[in-house]
Amino acid sequence: MTGYLFRRIGGALLVLFGLTTILYALFYLAPSDPAVLTCGKGCTPERLADVRHAMGVDDPVHVQYAHFLEGLVAGRDYPSGPDVRHCPAPCLGYSFETDQPVTALLTDRLPVSVSLAIGAEALSLVVGIGAGMLSGLRRHRWLDRLVNGLVLTGYAVPVFLVGLLLLLLFCVVLQWLPFPAYVPFTTNPLLWAQNLLLPWVALATIQAAAYARLTRAGIQETLAEDHIRTARAYGLPERRIIWRRAFRGAMLPLVTLTALDVAAIMTSAVLTETMFGLPGIGQLLVGAVNQIDLPVVVGVTLLTGLLIVVANAVADLLYAAIDPRVQLR
Amino acid sequence: MRRSLPAVLVSAMLLTACQGNGGEGGATSAAFDPKTCQGGTLSVLNQGGINRLDPARLYTSGGGNIPSLLFRTLTTRNRLEGEAGTKPAPDLATDLGTPSDGAKTWTYKLRDDVFFEDGTPIKAADVKYGIERSFSPDLPGGAPYLRDWLVGAANYQGPYKQPDGLEAIETPDDKTIVFKLSKPEGDFPFLATATQFAPVPKAKDKGVGYDAHPISSGPYKIESYEPKKSLELVRNEHWKPAVDNLRYACPDRIEVTAGLDAAVINQRLVSGAGQDANAVTTDAAVGPEQLAQLQPGSELEKRVARGEFPATTYLAFNTRKAPFDDPKVREALSYAVNRTSVVNALGGSAVAGPSTTFLPPQKALGHQAYDFFPAGASGDPAKAKELLAAAGKPGLTIELAHENDDGNGLGPKPAAALQEAFKQAGVTVKLTPIDSATYRDVTGKPATQPGLSLQYWGADWPSGGPFLIPIFDGRQIITAGGNFNLAQYNDPAVNAEIDAINALTDQSQAQQRWGALDAKIGKLALTVPLAHEKDVYLFGKNVKNAVPDGWRGTYDLARISVK
Amino acid sequence: MTRAAVAFRDRGLVAGAAIATLMVVVAVSAPLLTAISGQDPTTFHDGLLDSARGGVPVGAFGGVSGEHWLGVEPGTGRDLFARIVYGARVSLGVAVGATVLQVLIGLLAGLAAGLGGRWADAALGRLIDLVLAVPSLVLAISLLAIVPADWPRPVLLAVVIAVLGWGGTARITRGETLSLRTRDYVAAARVSGAGWFRVARREILPGLTAPVLTYAALILPTNMIVEAGLSFLGVGVRPPTPSWGQMLSTATTWFRADPMYVVVPGGLLFLTLLAFVLVANGLRRVLDPRQSEFLR
């Protein structure tokens, strides 16, 4: 177990290190100069050189990268006019665009993305499993077909198309809901849910399709297994067979997927966040990328990488905990 | 000033289902009384506009809209509608300044009874300090004029590195501030509207960290502020209406939300549900969805402010590069442009108008009509072909540089419109998209400057000087970068005329001569003027006195009421 | 029953394949189709726009007429039918290109890992894990924003999507290879002196066809969605090159004023995606009946 943990953490660090290295290398190779944007219109070359120095982007890329790693591990001091700003570890630097600490930006935005992902995941699980069971039990052939058709449709719509239609229908035509604006859960749970409803539905449309399909397959597979047939032969009530055995068997793969999918939603909800105007990490990234805001881009990438790595580990652990045949190695 | 919109314009849909409640919020009702307008909360729904608030780092025309709620400057725009609104007015100072030494020295007296938000009286030294810190490389972003104009300022590094300050700014007493310029500048009262002329108390300066809470000298102060996200302003109790007759400061509270999509903002303004009835925007001009509904006499038409920010979209030739060194080629392309399709690509005739002059049509800039290469509404390809044949260059192939997205109006849409028009004249255009974040950098370095590029120039203040000087003054050609004289045109006679007009403090004389100069340069076809800007902004149902000012083309938050 | 017969009995597969083929034909023959309609995707028609109302097309359904079968694009007056068929080239081309690249890289990496011995397996396994663990959308956005704007965008898109997304194919290939190499006939080939390269080509690859092909059919629509999403966000194909995703992103500001401009690219994108999903679904049933629900 300890060996497993070490390997896991080592692997995670490797992934994150690789990600930052790639980003630094790319930004260095790119023709864009963040100082030009910061310096503004009519900036003279002398002034630009001074600004570049003040921003610390005049150093060679390996020096900048070393500074970055140092800040991440030990924190960094940034001279700032009459003051010195201390950026404690893990320091991801300050945004070029707004001079806010990147760690603060991320912690500020993360709850939005978490809210989005968890709600969407919960909704997808409920809808997906429900639909999957209905169809998997094959009580009604038409129901099976309907669910199957919806599942395929769910695969075939891009999230922004669903989002557009939802906004159009509920905010503009029917006006049942206001245009989504994020309200923190701690401020008002009801408004929080109301404002996130449409983004949840948009994301869940696609995610639920996957779960329905999985559940349906799982149920059909377990129903065909020997122990179920035995149970039936023993005359156990059908309801009990379904709930105790088939359902459980079908749920196993889903449980491990949940952690992965929450992370996947958080890291890929860029479109949903920009479309619904939710200030999550995806929206932060899109804004930063357009402004060559390297510290923010690196920060978001690191955080999303970390989320995926953690989710993978959680999924493995869950799998091992649920299924005794699996051994962590 | 360039108002940049987020490059990613995502999402949204705008329908206007709710046409409901009749139009009560008349915009320009004559009965508006600034004395009784106080109360309520104004919402500002924005795409951006609150990335920074440090006055040293803002690049504004006339002090900006949101910043002007926080910062009083030596002078400010006079906030009137139309032509009358293109003049500066005294703000912290008692007048527009006293020029001496042939407009090389400008002296200002500060008003009595002006205070920071903590009750400290504002002194001349605070204004001087505010200007000085804008020179610090830690606080870049402001306009370059002060660096160019003040004596010995070109290499000043700001008060953190050089605490002795700028000798060119003298404060003989707490109420007097004197500026020494290296050349006569009749436009100095216009420049003094910039946020760099806002006072900054040295004791509160935290360098880069000052942005988190800049100290207010205006009618509102910051209650909470998250850059690019939200800004909440409450009344600054130490601001006295008696000594500020330009800012009405009607709402008790102003809440700015940024990061919204332009289409969503406009849809919310149209629907006006709940608090959105008290909403305005400072950066989301109407989109096609609203324009399609804006019929004369419609309910929505009463909730629209139409103004014009002086700005020109144009084609810039690099006359040092073949084939644009040949005036015949430049003239041919001037004949070939289809201004109708350019205007449509920019959003239609409601938000842009065709221009044949480099100066936009405002009188304050000295506009004089001319059309030396009449292309008509949709181009004259025959004449263009004729000129190209005469130049020995029929069937020319050229490259046109443009921004890679349409957020700034220099994107693929107008570029494609020009490509099509030139095709009619037998000219093959290869489009060269350049990332919008680096566009200015690439075109501003003669070493990397393309032969032909799509450009936009807006007025830093409503006068011919800031419009013509960076573009046509030969001494402004900066080879290392940040160049705007893209034609690389250097005519000593033009340079001398510019100096002569700069020395004028009589604006009407200056206007006359700027206009004449523009016409003179226009004959050379150094640029192809394409379109000028028109601004159409919606406002909420309860919003009153949303009058577009002549300086910036949009309504002024400091004069809006939601009571 | 032969596989072909099974395939033809699968109505979803047949319908999906028909639509998908039609789309591919449309994309390939775009120049021909526009020649027939007499329009091209770049010519501006200012006369067909109402400039004062923001440039919306004059006439019903976005300016549908005998000349402009689907109307014209608002703001420019460019022929919508021409832009749609040329847009199909980009949307399908990028998706197919990315898929082919993904499969190639994945096959090579998976085969090398499966056949190359412990060290190769360990090293490549790590790499595959890394690719699977990368937040690909986040990285794709950053990557696409950084590269110079004048690089050929569709090629770049295909490469970026492929480079960030070959992990799945590699993992499947590796797994299948590992199980195939223990089979008797592979062992027999080895014993008879065949090199690994020959074994890979002659013995392993045929066994990989079914799982890899089904997987490829599955990631094709996903890649199409990714392309549309990236173009929608403004980091994909650059205008004036038409792509459905990029058309949709401009269309969102025209919902009410010109619904046709949303309905046409949106509907086609959905239809095409659905067709490919049906094909993938059908292929799985036909080619790989034992593999139950690998798709999620």
Question: Could you characterize what this model shows?
Answer:
The complex is a heterotrimer of chains A (329), B (563) and C (296). Chain A has 13 helices and 2 strands. Chain A is mainly α and 329 residues long. Chain A folds into 2 domains: 32-91, no CATH class; 102-322, MetI-like (MetI-like fold, Orthogonal Bundle). In chain A, a hairpin with a 2-residue loop joins β1 and β2. In chain A, α7 (159-173) crosses α8. The model of chain A has no long low-confidence stretch (mean pLDDT 83). Chain B is α+β, with helices and mostly antiparallel strands and 563 residues long. Chain C is mostly helical and 296 residues long. In chain C, a hairpin with a 5-residue loop joins β1 (49-50) and β2 (56-57).
Annotation keywords:
heterotrimer; A: 329 residues; mainly alpha; MetI-like fold; 2 domains; two-stranded antiparallel sheet; 13 helices; 3% strand; elongated; C: 296 residues; two-stranded antiparallel ribbon; 12 helices; 2 strands; 69% helix; disordered C terminus
State the gist of this model.
The complex is a heterotrimer of chains A (329), B (563) and C (296). Chain A has 13 helices and two strands.
Tell me which CATH architecture of the domain at 86-253 in chain C applies here.
Orthogonal Bundle
> How are the strands ordered across the major sheet of chain C?
1-2
Model regions low in confidence, pLDDT < 50 over at least 5 residues of chain C: 291-296
Helix content of chain B: 10-25%
Largest sheet of chain B: 5 strands, mixed
Radius of gyration of chain C: 23 Å
Shape call of chain C: elongated
Low-confidence stretches of chain B: 1-29
Mean of all residue-level pLDDT scores of chain B: 90
Strand content of chain C: under 5%
- CATH-assigned fold name of the largest domain in chain B: D-Maltodextrin-Binding Protein, domain 2
The portion of residues assigned to helices of chain C is 55-70%
The total count of helices of chain C amounts to 12
